[in-house]
Amino acid sequence: MARARGWQDVHDEALRRIRARVWAPGARIPDEADLATELGCARVTVNRALRELARTGWLERRRKGGTRVPLTPVRKATFDIAIIRHEIEARGARHGYRLLSDRLEPAPDGLRAAPGLEGAAALRHVRALHLADDRPYCFEDRWLNPALVPPATSFAAMSANEWLVRNLAYTRGTLAVGAVAADAALAALLGCAARDALLRIERVTLADRVPITQVALTYGPGHRMETAT
Amino acid sequence: MARARGWQDVHDEALRRIRARVWAPGARIPDEADLATELGCARVTVNRALRELARTGWLERRRKGGTRVPLTPVRKATFDIAIIRHEIEARGARHGYRLLSDRLEPAPDGLRAAPGLEGAAALRHVRALHLADDRPYCFEDRWLNPALVPPATSFAAMSANEWLVRNLAYTRGTLAVGAVAADAALAALLGCAARDALLRIERVTLADRVPITQVALTYGPGHRMETAT
DNA sequence: AAGTGGTCTAGACCACAAA
DNA sequence: TTGTGGTCTAGACCACTTG
Questions:
Q1: Cβ distance B118 to B147 under 8 Å?
Q2: CB-CB neighbors (< 8 A) of B221 in chain A
Q3: How far is the CA of B65 from the C1' of C8 (A)?
Q4: Nucleotide nearest residue B62, measured CA to C1'
Q5: Residue-level pLDDT at B79
């Protein structure tokens, strides 16, 4: 390896060594200072490169323990979670939206016990359908913490999905992806057959430990989430 | 904001301002040098913090164009793609594995045209079942480029999934998640009812533009991919 | 042409975890 | 105790892109 011109060079060279097994799985690699000397650059430059490799799962780093090539690398895949309207427009389709219902209802079992919601007798329950070129695209079933959304907010014109993204930047949350079979109601909404397999994304969003919203997005048949790695 | 002690402080303060709309959506924020002065730290420290926020979708940065708060932030969710055996063991279950078939077969239509495979008359087709505590967990249906896998390699004891991760660190690939209804064969393999909704992950893996493998992992009913953000 | 982010360097100190 | 990664600083130059 010639002299490294930048952290990308160091990154690529390190990746080459991992792949070529110059640095064997499970083995410890030279420390930053040595690599910097060898590659003719500053230690910070090596640090930047190795940090990047650690972030994507190619290396494991520990203070004092040094940097190692994992026996079995855990690859990471990143999906963009965009506003549904953008998702549809990015496919070159026209976004449509129909609010199906919006009312206060007793919290469902799964939510009643959530910390920060014990006091809430009822939650705002919003159901809506997103359309792509007038065809059903995604069913949005959402529970909102009424304490965090002004009661006057209407989701008739702008979906709760978009309103939330624009108005309540969140802090933490969880996301789960699964498959469900369409029941009669879903089949009618999404225009598919009962028992069709549908992709469902469930998201729980918190702001400082207080639940903001929980949503289930159920997509029409054949929908796929895709990403390049 | 008091004096920033490190890039995390700058990161947090910036995030606070985004959330509090001190920096409004669509607006340009002060440049790095100004922020460094204001927060009493070096410009590189500000750079590190803002770079991180850009990576996670909270900011957009351009040379000369400056840094802006996106009108509609695109959040990113990261999933770990682990070896299936580890996935099962992480759930506290015992991993089992059954090789169902392994033979050379004509490439299916979707693959025949792939660049780098035009010459390959046949691909290695491996079908296997992963078990968690002796119950079907995931069906692995894989096509391998025979040029990249020694013919003597047996997938009877170690799954192709694990063999590949250990032996062919990949460069690029794509990943797609979708839902499929169980057909009779899948239902029999996974021990579920026909038409049950199943989560399917499809991955294409390339090394330097040459296809290594294409795999479809079909999970048992109720399986979810989860992540915290 | 000029402004802004991107990165490098050298030296320094700190924090954490292994020995 | 000590080695290793984590980070900060100040100054510098480069690269992209916008006006």
A1: no
A2: 179
A3: 23
A4: C5
A5: 85
User: Which residue is closest to C7 in terms of CA–C1' distance?
Assistant: A6
Confidence of residue B216 (pLDDT cuts 50, 70, 90): very high
Nucleotide C17's nearest residue (CA vs C1') is A64
**Nearest CB partner across the interface for A25, out of B166, B174, B178:** B166
Give A171's contacts (C-beta < 8 A, 6+ positions apart). A206, A207, A208
Distance of CA A91 to the CA centre of its chain: 19
**Confidence class for position A218, pLDDT limits 50, 70, 90:** very high
The pLDDT value given to residue A117:
65
Query: Cα(B52)–Cα(B65) distance, rounded to whole angstroms?
Result: 18
How many CB atoms are located within 10 Å of the residue B204 CB? 21
Cβ atoms of A72 and B83 closer than 8 Å: yes
At residue A118, does pLDDT exceed 80?
A: no
Are A224 and B177 an interchain contact pair (Cβ–Cβ within 8 Å)?
Answer: yes
Report the mean per-residue pLDDT for chain B.
Answer: 89
A208: distance to nearest CA of chain B, Å? 12
- What is the rounded distance in angstroms from the CA atom of residue B185 to the CA atom of residue B190? 9
pLDDT score, position A90: 85
| CA to C1' distance (Å), from A44 to D8 | 11
**CA A215 – CA A126 distance, rounded (Å):** 9
Closest partner residue to B226 (CB to CB) among A176, A197, A223 is: A176
DSSP code of B82? -
Which residues of A spanning 12-41 put their CB closer than 7 angstroms to strand D?
A: 31-33
- Decide: A145 and A186 in contact? Cβ < 8 Å: no
pLDDT band (50, 70, 90) for residue A76: confident
The residue that leads in pLDDT, A83 or A192, is: A192
Q: 3-state DSSP: chain A helix, strand, coil percent, rounded to 5?
A: 25, 35, 40
